[in-house]
Amino acid sequence: MPQTGAVRTNEIQQHAEHAAESAEHSHDKSAHLTAHEETVQAEEHSRHTADLAAKLVHGKAASIEAAQHKK
């Protein structure tokens, strides 16, 4: 069953939130990056993936609309 754009966007957002949480916890484990640096990277990744998901959803919606107009 195909996923709706909203469901896929939610999954991507949850993945990004998990990455941010992992970054917060890793600062106690002598990571190469500071906790702040990892949090910044996680936030950038979250914004990037959310942007990609939005473009994907928008593209699918445009494709569906175009297909409906052809009928």
Give a written overview of the molecule.
This protein is mainly alpha-helical and 71 residues long. Helices cover 82% and strands 0% of the residues. The protein is built from 2 helices and no strands. It has helices at 5-26, 35-70.
Entry keywords:
71 residues, elongated, single chain
What is the strand and helix layout of this fold?
Blueprint lengths: L4 H22 L8 H36 L1
As an assembly, this protein is single chain
Kindly estimate the percentage of residues that lie in beta strands according to DSSP: under 5%
Helix content: over 70%
Radius of gyration: 17 Å
> Treating each run of at least 4 consecutive H or I residues as one helix, how many helices?
2
Query: How many angstroms does the end-to-end distance come to?
Result: 24 Å
Shape: elongated
Based on helices, strands and strand pairing, what is the structural class?
Answer: mainly alpha
- Largest sheet geometry: none
Order of helices and strands, N to C? HH
Regions with pLDDT < 50 over 5+ consecutive residues?
Answer: none
Count of individual beta strands: 0
Average pLDDT number: 76
